[in-house]
Amino acid sequence: MTFISIQEAMQQGSGEVSLRGWVHRERGSKKLKFIVLRDSSATIQCVIERSVVGDESFDVADKLQREASITLTGIIKKDDRAPGGFELSVTSFELVGESDQFPIEQGQSVEFLADNRHLAIRSRKMIAIMKIRSTYIQARERFFEQEGFYRFDTPILQPTQSEGGSTLFSVNYYEDQMYLAQTWQLYGESAIFALEKVYNMGPTFRAEKSKTSRHLSEFWMAEMEAAWMKLAEVTEFAKKELKYCIKEVVRVRSEELKFLEQDPQALLTMAEKEWPTIKYKEALATLKEKAGMDVPFGKDLRTIEEEKLTEFYDTPIVVTHYPTEIMAFYKPGDKDHPEEALCFDMLAPAGYGEIVGGSERSLDVADMERRLKADGEDPADYNFYFDTRRYGSVPHSGYGVGVERVIRWICGLESIKDAIPFPRTMLRYKP
C-alpha cells in the first residue's frame, strides 16, 4: 500500500488511492459515516458505508472522535458538493491512534488556546499561518543565495548588550554571566571583512516589559550585513528583499492567504509598486500637517504615530535619519547633520508598524566609546567589536527584519502571538 497526500489524490482526481491523516470533523448515521480527513496538504470528505466495510470496521468508525489518526483506502471522485470538491468512497480503513474528546473548540478564550497551544496549532488558521511563515523563510534563503550572500551563524550566548541593557536576559554561564542575544549584528559585522556579504536568521531575545500585540520576548530576526553599502543602497536592498519574499508567498500560498481573508492580488500589486523613502523630519511634518500630531525632534515615533503615518500610504515606507541621540551606539550621525543618524526603519501599511530596522555602521571608535559610557557601559567589553575598525575598516551597512512582524502583516493578524508557533511574552513562557 502506497500512501499519497490528500492534495496529490485530488490532483489524480479518480481511481483508487490510500490516504492517512487526522479526523477533522465527523458525523453520520447507523449506515453512513462522513469523515473530513486532514493532512498537512488539504482536507477531503470521506464516506464510510457499513455495507462496504462490514459491521466490525463500521463500529470502529462510528466511535471515531476528532483528531483520531486513521488510514483509508478508497475510490476518489470529483464532487462539487463536498469540501474541496472531491470525495473518497472508502473501501477499507484502519484506526492508528485513538483520540479522547479534543479540547479545542470554536469560541474558546485566547488564554485557553494559549495554554493549549500544542494542540491549537492543529487548527486550519494556524496551519495556514505556519505554511506562509515557512514559505517566507525559504524564499528569503533563496533571495540571499541569488544575491551572492553567505550564511553566517553567530553565538546566542553573548557577553555584552547591543540594543540597550534594560532588555537583556542574563544567563549563568559556569562561573560567569552571559546574555541571550539581542541581535546577531555585532558578530555578523566581523564577517563582512572576510566574506563581504552575509546574512542569518536566528532566535532573538528582548526583555521588554510590554504586553502589546506587537511585542514578543523571544522572536526570530532575519539579518544581513554588507561591506561597502551606504544608507541609500541598503534601504533599497531591504525593499528588494521584502518584495521578493512577498511575491513568492503569493505564488506558493495564495490559497492559504485567501483562507485568512487576505487578497493575494492586492499583495502582489503592492509588491510591484515603488515604496517611498522619507526622512524623519519629513515624517514629523506630515504628522503635524495631516494628523495634527506635534512630535518634537528628538522623540522616537511611538506605535500611535507610526500607525497614523502609514495611513497616508498604501505600501510600506522607509523612514531615515532618526535623531542620533536616541539611536544605538553603532549608528553614526550624518557628517553634514550630526544630529541625524544614518539609519532607517521600514513601516508596514495599515498600522502594522516597524518591520525592518537598520543603518550604516559607525567607523568612529572614539564616538562609540563615548556613547557607550553615556549609557553606563564599559567600552572595554566591546574591544572585539572595535578591533574590526582598527584593521582595514570599510563602510558597511545592515538591517534586521522582524520575521513575526512581517508574517503578522502579510497574514492580517490581530496579534503577533499568532505569527509564531509558541509565543514567549512577558506573561507567557509555556507550553
Question: Can you give a write-up of this model?
Answer:
The chain is of the alpha+beta class and 431 residues long. It has 14 helices and 16 strands. A hairpin with a 3-residue loop joins strand 1 (15-28) and strand 2. Helix 6 (124-146) runs antiparallel to helix 8 (231-259), helix 6 (124-146) packs across helix 14 (403-411) and helix 8 (231-259) runs antiparallel to helix 9. The radius of gyration is 26 Å and the shape is elongated. The relative contact order is 0.11.
Mean pLDDT: 95
Q: Secondary-structure element order, as H and E?
A: HEEEHHEEHHHEEEEHEEHHEHHEEEHHEH
CATH architecture name of the largest domain:
2-Layer Sandwich
Q: Name the poorly predicted regions.
A: none
Fraction in beta strands: 25-35%
CATH topology value of the largest domain: BirA Bifunctional Protein, domain 2
Topology:
Blueprint: H1 6-12, E1 15-28, E2 32-38, E3 43-49, H2 50-53, H3 55-62, E4 69-78, E5 86-97, H4 110-115, H5 117-120, H6 124-146, E6 150-151, E7 157-158, E8 170-173, E9 176-180, H7 185-195, E10 197-205, E11 218-227, H8 231-259, H9 264-272, E12 277-279, H10 280-291, H11 303-310, E13 317-320, E14 343-348, E15 353-360, H12 365-374, H13 383-390, E16 396-402, H14 403-411
Parallel strand pairs: 3-5, 6-10, 12-13
Antiparallel strand pairs: 1-2, 1-4, 2-3, 4-5, 7-9, 8-9, 10-11, 11-16, 13-14, 14-15, 15-16
Helix pairs in contact: 6-8, 6-14, 8-9
